[in-house]
Design a protein that fits this description.
Elements lengths: L5 H25 L2 H15 L24 H10 L16 E7 L13 E7 L5 H20 L4 E7 H5 L7
Parallel strand pairs: 2-3
Antiparallel strand pairs: 1-2
Helix pairs in contact: 2-3
């Protein structure tokens, strides 16, 4: 194949980030303010295992989103949702159970409408035990139920991140 320079790689990365930001703004334009909190809190809900956040199942539910740090919008939404919310950094580095959350499908594209659903791929760490995956799945279903109370149709697809990288068990 062809070689790609570091400069070209940076350009591609910046374009990807810009496209992602445009898609996020497009999504927010379609959502009502009470629905926007779903997207604002989504990564935090899976990073911090708190009984005060939607989707809480138990103390042992796997949590921690790889290299996640909430931005000002998320912290503001959390503060509205939970009085006196303070982010303490979440889980220790290297202990994260979730490798990535990906909003898939038509969301943020020209095909997206107010009646579209949101498909979210939740890629979990390959070393999770079956009981931990069951807990994480229960949390995802509870978050789907919370989203429904906001008038959103949301579906989570849990995937072992290692198997996904290898093209196994992909929900495509």
């Amino acid at each position: 194949g062809e070689e790609i320079s570091i400069k070209d790689l940076r350009t591609v990365k910046l374009r990807f980030k810009k496209l992602h930001q445009v898609r996020i703004h497009y999504i927010y334009d379609f959502l009502q303010p009470r629905q926007q909190i779903f997207l604002d809190l989504l990564p935090l809900i899976f990073h911090v295992n708190s009984p005060l956040l939607p989707g809480y199942i138990s103390f042992g539910t796997p949590s921690g989103l790889y290299q996640y740090r909430p931005g000002p919008r998320t912290l503001k939404a959390a503060g509205k949702f939970i009085k006196n919310f303070a982010f303490d950094g979440g889980r220790a580095a290297g202990k994260e159970a979730i490798d990535g959350l990906y909003l898939m499908g038509s969301v943020g594209s020209i095909a997206y409408s107010k009646t579209s659903d949101m498909d979210i791929w939740l890629c979990h760490h390959p070393d999770l035990l079956p009981g931990e995956i069951k807990e994480l799945s229960a949390k995802a279903h509870a978050v789907e139920d919370w989203a429904a109370t906001l008038g959103l149709e949301v579906h989570f697809f849990l995937m072992n991140s290692k198997q996904f990288r290898l093209g196994l068990d992909a929900p495509i």
